[in-house]
Write a structure and sequence with these properties.
alpha+beta; 5-stranded mixed β-sheet; single chain; globular
């Protein structure tokens, strides 16, 4: 097993942050999880993890990222390695700085509007995709104060 370099926090602190709402497999593809196991969570920016946890707690509804672990078809919404065909090679997903998700029972438009209206609760989000059926958040640097909306 390959162990990624140490990040500013430990594997244990990342695992504590995501439970009880998430498991590591939701943040990475099956191939990445098979290679790294729970260490794969270290590939995801801590601010992005904090954001999706905050979204889950704000809405008090399940948040769905990847579903492959439970025999679902979704496998590319978190970290994407270079062998994956989804998205561009410069995608923030490939840098661990982006997630796509849905909040069960709430439209993605409402979730985006809520994040924008409550920016202080989601300080790590700098950009979101607009006019899509899921919520894309990322932390790509922009010089804007407000969250930037873009279309894929």
């Amino acid at each position: 097993m390959v162990i990624p370099p140490k990040n500013r926090d430990s594997l244990k602190s990342r695992l504590e942050l995501i439970k009880p709402h998430f498991i590591v497999q939701e943040f990475v593809s099956k191939r990445v999880y098979d290679l790294l196991g729970d260490y794969a969570i270290l590939l995801i920016d801590r601010g992005i993890i904090e954001t999706v946890v905050a979204v889950r707690e704000f809405f008090q509804c399940p948040v769905v990222i990847n579903t492959w672990k439970n025999y679902g078809a979704i496998d590319g919404r978190g970290y994407r390695d270079l062998k994956e065909n989804t998205g561009s090679t410069g995608s923030m997903h490939r840098k661990g700085g982006a997630l796509d998700f849905v909040v069960q029972g709430i439209s993605s438009r409402i979730v985006r509007e809520t994040i924008i209206a409550n920016r202080h609760l989601f300080p790590h989000v700098t950009r979101m995709e607009d006019k899509v059926e899921w919520v894309h958040i990322d932390n790509k640097f922009t010089e804007k104060v407000d969250i930037e909306l873009f279309q894929p």
